[in-house]
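Q: Start with the shorter request: fold the first protein.
A: Done. Sequence, then structure:
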Amino acid sequence: MMKRATFTALMLLCPTIALAGENPVLGTWKLKSMYREVIATGEKTNEQEFGERPNGYLSYSSDGRMYGIITADTRTKPLSTPPTDEERAKLHKTMFAYAGTYTVQGEKVVHKVDISWNEIWTGTDQVRFFKIEGNTLTITNLFKIPQDGREGTYVFVITATL
């Protein structure tokens, strides 16, 4: 009886625990590939700064927190500590990261950004769409290509870690 009462109390205090079994994105995911796709043409390109095989992780915890970080596959190590301003700028240009809370709504996950490498994202909701096939999570988000205004998606293919 005591175990049941303790479990019930925990469920009332932490409702996300109850949903953990129903949360399809729960866990830590390792980036496999990242590319942009133009919606009208299907044209696919890699992000120039991030290369063919960028590195990254995306993690969703049962307490409703998330983080994501991606770095380029060709980052150069600074020659000394601290890095020069030029080295620091190159490092900043070849990564992005943010963390916050998240909610899952069908095949959509909304990231409520608390902290970010780019302050313009802090305090925003970043809407992502997802699909899971086996141990592969595919995340997409819509955007307009700055150079020509065409609509596109960023596609992140991520595999589950053990």
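Q: Next, the second protein, separately.
A: Sequence, then structure:
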Amino acid sequence: MKDKDCILLLSGGIDSTTLLALLSKERYSITALCFSYNQKHSIEIEYAKTNSKIYEINNIEIVELHTSSFNSSGLVSSVIILNKYQSIKLPASQDNSYVPFRNLLFLSYALSYAEALKIHEIYIGVNKDDAENFWDCSEPFIKIINKLAKINTDIKINAPFIKYTKSEIIKLAYTLNVDLSNTISCYEPKNGKECGSCLSCVKKEVAIIKAKSN
């Protein structure tokens, strides 16, 4: 019997799918929120739907966001070419796939949804590796949003992978029997195939190699 309610920010990627598997194992009743914002990898929504079925999540909400303010991001703009990398040369600064205040928007929506439904826990799959390139995946960001939430609610935003590297999350995915072929990490897939050279693809490649070698 499932007796714990939570909201999960679910994409089609490894991190949130692994978190979905973990929460399912811990017998949470999960409401999944998946965001559509004209992203170049909108195929992730189909993967999120597929994994929701696999883990028997009855409630998945596809949230449509207005994206006029996202045109500075290579993840959304049709005129900005996403940065490409080699696996041995990952950037130390913010990538041009950054979407302004994206996780703040996602979590603000999730907080509103949670308060309306009287759900007290929100989960997000941000991690240590993502925080290197995106400030709104960092531990200080999560701490500040939790402080804001506590002003008038008892809702907690949980980021259980915040100190995990991507390879550590992949190791956990293996132990949970997550089918990684049912995930997509690419920022700009072509015909459903990962490009292999965007930041997300390269991080995934490096992480899988590390996970298998350790």
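Q: Describe the second briefly.
A: The CA atoms of residues 114 and 120 lie 7 Å apart. Residues 4-213 form a domain with the Rossmann fold fold (CATH 3.40.50.620).
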